[in-house]
Amino acid sequence: MAYVVTAEGARRLDQAASELMKVRSELLMDQAARGLAEAVLSRARELASRRIVVVAGPGNNGGDGIACLWHLLIKRQAGDEVPPLELILTRPPDKVRLPGKLFLRQLMVGFGLEPRVVESAEWLASRLLADQPLVVDAVLGTGVEQPLTGRVAEVVEVLSRVSPRRLIACDLPSGLDATSGELWGEVPRAGITVAMGHYKAGHLLGEGIAHSGRLKLVPLGFMPVEMALVERVLEPSQVAVALDGAFVRRTLPRLTLPADPTLHKHRRGRVVVIAGSGELEGAAVMAAHAALAAGAGLVRLAVPGGIYAAARSLAPEEITMRTVGEGAEFAPDDAGELEQDLEWADAVALGPGLGRSAEVSEFAQRVLEGLDKPAVVDADGLWGLEGMLPWEGGAELVITPHPGEMGRLCDLIGLDFTDFELDLFSSAHRFAERFGVALVYKHYRPLLAVPSGRVGREGVQLAIALRGAPQMASAGMGDVLTGIIATMLTREGSLLERVGAAICWHTLTGELAARLHPQGIPATRVASMLSRSLRMILGRGE
Questions:
Q1: Which of 110, 180, 205, 401 is deepest in the core (most CB within 10 A)?
Q2: Domains in the chain, number
Q3: What are the start-end ranges of the E strands in 73-118?
Q4: Tens digit of each residue's pLDDT (9 = 90 or more) over 437-470
């Protein structure tokens, strides 16, 4: 299992590997550098680079870059074609700290590779920009927590002028905050970032997404006991499960393909979607369609009576329609008419296209009161949560706000939204713990926080998506996610696994759809491609 850690989490794990597991720091560096060298050589061949330049700082990040050169030289000795190599240090060789100093000595004594020290920003620019070498940024790592100054700021600024296509970052682009994704200077944009041991939160938050490029993970060699180590030394807000391809391949088959071949539709999950209002009937239908496409055996869509004709004309025939009242919006008293539907359902989706009037919010609140089935609340349904947090219902409740809706929730409960955004891991964890709900924050990379006591054996309460496509920023995409989550809530497994699998499936399907719709993806297209993407996830082709 892959993890995403904060800067403090990364430091604790490195320390624990050394102190608790007795792993020598030079062995960890050797393992990291080996993976970095593989990525560098592969990229050099891809671009037909005629020169490879490593720019290294004096700390551990620089040591990884120095050790990477040592591995490249060993590959050359073994007969691999390796372009000419150059090492540029930001500080004199005697300032390089252990264990990087050991690898530097081997480069100089064993291979005769003499490093050069940055003379000036202009000099560095002449080395990195003139003949377009492949550049490895190994200047700064996870320890950056304040604005860059002096020579290091000048070096990083020159690196920021290198084309992302020709830049590989060692662990992090220099100057990127490993926890928040904040930029502490003119941070380079890497085409590839080779993450050492674990992904960093900064890769996936804030500006880190645009500056990290494609992520490649290099395990550090102590994976068999990594889970125990994570649980032993890290706080829950310092680590998240990586919602990557491996996660979804491990969880989704069990959640979407029940082993019992005798199952009938009533045992494959019954979902009721309560949604829609005048001119927003499409949102309701998209959520119901997604629930059906995600594998629910039966989906019932409850809409206000005044929009039935419009919703019926849009909905697939397999979706059962249920009308309540006669108006174009739900009224508070309409909640009582849904009691049998809520009793029938295995999971509930509430909110898409519901409307935001005071009457509709009261209706949503009445639906939620006494709810004893797992539920996902999205969009306008979130307005009904006012006065209901902390959640004291007996059923699992998942909420899925986007940034604007999260800002409203923060206002309701007295949190500062700016502070929430600056430290998302810690903020999301506190929110889930304090209010007893599973939070799916629909950020650039969706973040999941599950309250304690409702997690699986992993003991980790956070999860974050590594995948997705910018084309997914389109109307209705959240409604589709709501439908997928609703179906996953009818399955067995930890809440983190079920909701995490839904997020993964949604983002991977979005990536697939982006190939066909490079300018923007219609949300209905994602719902219709869920089966196709599942075949790809399971390795059965398109």
A1: 205
A2: 2
A3: 85-89, 116-117
A4: 999 999 889 999 998 755 444 455 899 999 888 8
